[in-house]
Automatic annotation (TrEMBL):
Domain Stomatal closure-related actin-binding protein PH: 380-487
Keywords assigned: Coiled coil
InterPro entries assigned: SCAB (IPR039640), SCAB-ABD (IPR032012), SCAB-Ig (IPR032015), SCAB-PH (IPR041144), SCAB_CC (IPR032009)
Chain ranges of the Stomatal closure-related actin-binding protein coiled-coil domain: 100-267
Stomatal closure-related actin-binding protein actin-binding domain location: 54-96
GO MF terms held by the record: actin binding
Stomatal closure-related actin-binding protein Ig domain: residues covered: 280-377
One Pfam entry name: SCAB-ABD
Coiled coil keyword on record: yes
Designated name of the protein: Uncharacterized protein
GO BP: any one term: actin filament organization
Coiled-coil parts of chain: 128-266
Amino acid sequence: MTRMSRDFANTMQKEAVSAVSNDVIFASSRFPNYKLGTNNQILDSKEDPKVLSMKEVVARETALLLEQQKRLSVRDLANKFEKGLAAAAKLSEEARLREAASLEKHVLLKKLRDALEALRGRVAGRNKDDVEEAIAMVEALAVQLTQREGELIQEKAEVKKLANFLKQASEDAKKLVDEERAFARAEIESARAAVQRVEDALQEQEHMSRASGKQDLEELMKEVQEARRIKMLHQPSKVMDMEHELQALRTQLTEKSKRAIQLQKELAMTKRGEKNPLLYELDGPEALGSILQIVPCSDNAPEISQCIVQWRRVSSEGGKKELISGATKSVYAPEPYDVGRILQADVLFDEQRITLTTAGPIEQAPGLGSYVEALVRKHDTQFNVVVTQMNGAEHTSEAIHSLHVGKMRMKLCKGKTTVIKEYYSNSMQLCGVRGGGNAAPQALFWQVKSGVSFVLAFESERERNAAIMLARRFAYDCNIVLAGPQDRTPSATQ
C-alpha cells in the first residue's frame, strides 16, 4: 500500500487545478458562495433587495404604463410608448447578455465536473469524499442553472412580447397623433377661412354703410339749408298763412277731383247711350293709398253680398286684362302694381253682368316715389308691423313686429327673436291684401315660401306701399319678379 504524503496530495491538487485553469477563464478569483442544505441541495444566498429581477421590472413598467394611460394626452402617451420600447430593447439586450453568460457558465461547470471526475480517480480516502461532494455540488449547480435558464427563456419571451406590444402601440400612437394633427390643421384652416369671410362681409357692410350715411348726410344738409333759407325769407306769420292756403287748395282740389270723376262717369254713360243709370258704381279716390268700393246707386240693385265680384286690371295701352287673384270682395285697395292701369270690377247676378271701370289709371301717391328712392340707398329698411294672419289662420296677438326689407332677403322679427327670414326667390309672393275693409290699404300679403304666409298690418298706407315697392325693387335686382298669386296670368276675356 502506498502512503501518500501531505506534500504529494497538495501537489496533485495544484496540478489538477492548474490543468483546469489553463482551459477556463474564471470570472472571479473565488468560488461562488453557495450554501448546502439537506441532501446536498444548494441554497441561494440572499440577493441584494435593491436589485430587481427582469420580470419584476417588466411588470412594474407595464403597471405604470397602464395606470398613466388614462390621464396622459396622445402626445405624452406616444412619448411613453417610445420610452417603454427603448426600455424593452434594453431589457432584451440584458437578457441576451445573461443568456451568453449562462452558456459560459454551463461550459465552465462541464469542464469543472470533468476535472473533478479526473481528480476523483487519482485520490483516495478523505480527499476522495471531498471530491465527490464537490462533484455533487457542481451537478446541483448545473440543475439550478438549467432552471434559471428556463426562467430566463420565459422572461425573454415575455420581454419580446412586451416589446412587440409597445412597438405596435407606439406606431398606433404616432398614427393617431398624425391624424389629430391633420384634423386640427383642417379645423384651423376652416376657421381662418370663416374669419376671413366674416371680415370681408363686415368690411363690405361698413363701406356700404359709410357711403349710404354720407349720401343721407348730404341730403339732410341740403334740406336743412333749404329750410333755413325759407325761414330767413319768410316770417312765421307768412308761413302759417301759406300752410292754410295750401290746405284750402288741397281741399278744393280733392272736391274738384271727385266732381271730375263723376262727370267722367256720366260722360262715359252718355257715350255708351245708356238711358237708365247703372245699378252700381265705384266710389273712392282712384289713387294709391285709397279704397275703391262698389256701392249701389239704385233701389233696384240686388244686395252686393249676393253677387259674384271679380276685380281685374286693364293695361292703358293695349287694353290687356289681367285677373287679380283673390280680389272677389266689394272693396279693393289699389297696390303699387296697379299704378298707371285701369281697374275693372265685374258684378254677376241673375245671369247678368255689370262691368264697372275707373275713370282713368290709378295715380301714384304724392311723394312716395322720392321716399322709396331714399330707402333704396339703404342696406336694410325696418318697418313696424302687426301680424294679423299666419298661414291663413287669424293671429290674435297684437305684438309689434319688425319687418326688415334688405337687398338680398326679407326678415320678420319680434324683438331680438327672428320669426322667419328668407332670401328672394321665385316661390316668394308679395302684394296688397285683397279685401279686408278699411284696413286693406295698410295691409299686405307675404308668402315666404310654399305653405308659409303672413298678413301684415303697417302703421300707414305710405309704409305699406313703400315696403312693397322696395322689396320688388331689390328682388328685381336679383333677377326675381315678386307679384301676387297669379297676378301675371291674363284672363280669357281681352
